[in-house]
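In practice, a research group might receive sequence data for several interacting partners and want a quick structural hypothesis before committing to experiments. The following worked case mirrors that situation: the sequences arrive first, and a predicted assembly follows.
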Amino acid sequence: MFRNNKVAWLFVLPALTFLLVFKIWPIGVSVIESLTMTSFTGTKSFVGFENYEYLFKHDPVFWKSFSVTLFYSIIANPLIVLTSLLMALLLNSSHFFTKFFRTVFFLPAAISFAVVSVIWMIVLDPYNGLANSFLTMFGFKPQPFFASPDQALWVLILLNVWRSSGYWMMYFLAGLQNIPETLYEAAEIDGASTLKKTFRITLPLLTRTISFVLVANTAFNFLSFAPVYIITKGGPMGSTNLLMYESYKSAFVNLDMGRASAITTILLGIILVFSFFELRFTRARFEY
Amino acid sequence: MKKRSLWKTLILFAVLGIISLFFLIPLIWVVASALRPASPLYEYANPLTWKSFIPTKPTLENFVHIFVNLNFGRAIMNSLFVSVSTIVLTVLVASMAGFALAKFEFRGKAALFTIVLITFMVPFESIVIPLYILIKQLHIDNTYWALILPGVANGLAIFLFRQFFSEVPSEIMEAARIDGASWFRIYWRIVLPLSVPAIVTVIVMVFMFQWNSLFWPLVATHSSRFEVVQVAIAVHRSTENTSWANLFSSAIAGSLPPVILFLFLQKYFVRGISGTGLKG
Amino acid sequence: MRKLLLVIVLLLGVMLSATTIEVLWMGWPQDQVMQLVNAFREETGIDVDIQLVPFGQLFQTIEVRLAAGDGTPDVYIVDGPNTASYAARGYLLPLNEHFSDEEMSAWFDASIEEGSFLGTFYSVPYGTSSAGIFYNKAIFEEYGVPFLPETVEERLTWEEVAEIAKKLTKDTNGDGRTDIWGLVIEQIDRPYLIFPMVQSLGAKVLSDDGLVSQGYITSDEFIEGTTFYWKLFNEWKVSPQGLNDSAISREYFGTGRAAMMLGNEWNIRRMLQYPDIDYGLSPFPYFEGGVAVTPTGSWHVGINSKTRKLEEALTFTKYITGKEAVITWHKLNGIAPARSDVYEALPEVFDNPIWQLFVKEMETTAAPRPRTPGYSQYELMLREAFNSIHYGADPRSTLEEVAVRIDRELRKYR
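A structural hypothesis for the assembly, expressed as tokens:
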């Protein structure tokens, strides 16, 4: 660590300018918006924490949506991080086949979501979909997938794994390049098994990358709602009604910016809390 | 690692092969559909036959149509231009900030780091209206700047650089300081060259971000000459008329640039000097 | 150097003389829209900067663009029922003084009604719509069910449709899964197709001032109609649950996986993609003892109330909704024109009995969706309720619950 206020701030300044202008300023506006009520003619009035109070105490859908969101993230986040980490560990060599597999796993992230949604609606069509054709071929019972309140959220999680594992794998692959080869060589002389090397060397030295992926993925999971918007519309029976979709509806359909911003501010709080624990957990606290 | 026996490798590849089917089958089906002349989709979904995945009379007519009649090439060029410009600016700006956050102690660092984190924890949908009003006041709406500049404000990239730069040994920098190198020179000549995997990762990250953006380009630019890839793909879906042929062919054509970029940049996932054993 | 100067002067001249108006438009295929825009540019010398916005992003893009309040876009596409919402917020220019009675008489009454709010005309009809029961003749023949009647005089009741649907819901290969569905609903949860059902029983779907739903969507008639809809999916199981995408519903009907489809007039064009299908059209059913009501409404064109190019915006709006342009547009896109003179001008298209049936419905039984400044939130919440009901939720309690939420949203328009 070097100490030099002036130099440090000079390095930070360009990025800070961009962040302040294009992110912090509009975020500030949005947070302030959560303390106001907008009439339909567009006049705003300051109402304090009324939007929050309404959400917590009276809103008929908030708590259900809150628990759906929490459940979704708590399952999806570790699942994706583990899958992508495993992929990266298996594919960390420059063999031709590993390059092939890496690209295959990355493919779903590269395709427009407008089409991903169509693909999955058709693959998982309960009556004529590819998935059920496969299941019945192997003697299983056909499944309702998105048409079942018990399965829809799980299918959504699976879709997320399919779409984003390869993307996060890329970060782990990059992180793995920072681990010194000599450490492995030393361990090999001691006769350590692959598993032992993974737990003793790779994972400890990968913590900074792991904490990055954990935090970033947490934010992504809490904030993404495209599959809900396009495929399930929050249903069946509200089983996929993520908070972010509630906020979206409030903002652009119900024209209730106060409620919309209150929800996203709450989401910000939740994500910050999660991130704090994740950074703690991975011991990558920022050094003072 | 090299001594791993052959059968272990074979099993590993067999397992990976089966997993990759899960990733590939839906995509092969889409590619097959795009290579057919416009036709009913469900003919090829149920019952399942080999024809579901291999078109009997493959044709490129759907691709020709989107490029010749629907200006898809222009959309690709627009998105490429926006993505590449954003990448250049972001890599520069974010890596500088990441360097300071990783290697310096300074007043306000904790607050700054929190700001960086917050910027990617707020959904775009909730800042779109103030952001739109802002770019109108800056008189950059309906220009490429409106698409590029907000994309450069990328906290995630700063966070990533910070994580990776922390692994670069400080000893090298101290040595360079003693030799009289300026901080900028250290950043430019030592830190950046040692962090190729991080730079490559940020390039892909920013590219994917700009390549996949749909809502902001619609708001920030209104002239058809700025139409971007995701817009040109999404227009093929609506309640009254969804064109499967156009939708699938444009989505496949539109996914090639990120895939090619990823294929090409893979070879830069190599160990830097930071991987030689010095610990920071 | 001289040449360069000349070019610059010329360029400047062109830039200054041609006014450009900004148009925000629905994301119809570029090759179709540009034909009309180019023709307009040639005819009037007014340049049009047109943005084609995908349907999925259309409404939120309009919201953000209008929220900036600087008079752009000059002209924008309006989904008919949203007229009241934009008008109430002052986003739309009142058009009464700009359109003569003669001009107004070209459009169907229901379309004018949909484009008006509190007696003022705000959005010009661009298209309209109707719906009915499309049926697959091959499936009817195969199972010995007589073809459906195709005139309004012999309109079927919903009870009859349900009986036929039960007969035609088939598991053809005996694997315990339905392979042919009796009835597919093209837009499964949209009030557009469900309102006419309940209205046939005499239900009103919203108070006259458009601000109260309790007592209307919770009335016995409304619930009776919705219960019928619930039975289609849950008791008789003649309709498939979870077909959330209208394009996929059309696939089902087009490829022989459904015997009947309750769908829109645009299927006349869409079904051309399915070469094998031989279909007929039966009018929108009614409930026994009730009246016939059919859905209608579609895209309209509005002018930004703050536009700084009123004249040009008006010229464009009149052009694009005028007889010539609508004729061209129908040939290109197949949308149902909202002007009766277009139907007369294209006998070779509209003399077809299927179109004749739709035109008759538009003139007689068509009822526009309710006019309320809160239409989009009213519709969204009802859609969610219908969605739950089609998955099996109890109609009465679902509607009672949603009525409370709707009324809370509508309160702000008082």
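Before designing any experiment, note the following. DSSP finds 13 helices and three strands in chain A. The beta strands of chain A are 2-3, 36-38, 44-46.
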